[in-house]
Amino acid sequence: MKKTLVLYRSVYGYTKDYAEMIAEELGCGLREASRMSAGDLAPYDTLIFGGGLYASAINGVNIIRDHFDLLQGKHIAVWATGINAGSPEVMERVWRRNFPEKIQKNIRTFYLRGGFDYGNLSPLHKIMMTGLKWKIKASKNQSEEDAGLLKAYQRPENHCDRRNIAGLVTYVRSLSGITPESSGPAAPGRTPEKSPPHSTEPTA
Ligand SMILES: Cc1cc2nc3c(=O)[nH]c(=O)nc-3n(C[C@H](O)[C@H](O)[C@H](O)COP(=O)(O)O)c2cc1C
After folding, report:
1. pTM of the entire structure?
2. CA 193 vs CA 56, 101, 152, 196: distances in Å
3. pLDDT truncated to tens, each residue of the chain (204 aa)?
4. Which residue has its alpha carbon closest to ligand 1 atom 19?
5. How many CA atoms are closer than 13 Å to the CA of 162, on its beta-carbon side?
6. Distance, CA 203 to ligand 1 centroid (Å)?
7. Atom of ligand 1 nearest to the CA of 8
């Protein structure tokens, strides 16, 4: 396989769990992204970045977004890990919020559902999530997504499952022409119909 690196940022460990599973499955390197610079990414042909969702922002994704021009010619896959159920509408909004169109067209995105444990949150996150809870409760038009989130306040949820990485792993293997050994269910999320021939080439 070409030189591949899994990079991640994780606060409560859910994204980290997925990062470890993906690196193990692909037999490639694994690094926590906070101390890495764009220069550290130069030796790799394929970068796989994952971050937790916080108010719809993908934690740490700026290492890809802000240095996208320096990453020309590399294949880039990004996954987000959140507690939402991963409906196409919600995830479309997440991708739009995190990437300008030029980048969206040249990367592959995946959603790997993580977990949520209100009792384990930091004091700041507890305050933020309590505020959100009251906002949702006061809203007259609660979406399915909102109802799901309210449920997650009541008892811890953990959806991290090795089967969820199948779509991402299959995609990365396909870059090297390696046939996947097994084909589990595809990870939900946005997988463009056509893979860009060179993921980071500008399309405009
Ligand atoms: C302050 C806060 C904001 C969050 N915002 C979102 C969100 O916008 N969408 C979502 O799906 N999950 C959201 N979550 C849930 C986290 O994304 C989820 O717990 C995820 O698994 C965290 O991954 P990590 O532990 O690897 O950072 C939020 C959690 C907290 C504490």
Report:
1. 0.86
2. 24, 16, 32, 10
3. 579 999 999 999 999 999 999 999 999 999 999 999 989 999 999 999 999 999 999 999 999 999 999 999 999 999 999 999 999 999 999 999 999 999 999 999 999 999 999 999 999 999 999 999 999 889 888 887 888 788 888 899 999 999 999 999 999 999 976 544 433 344 444 444 344 433 333 333
4. 116
5. 8
6. 32
7. 26
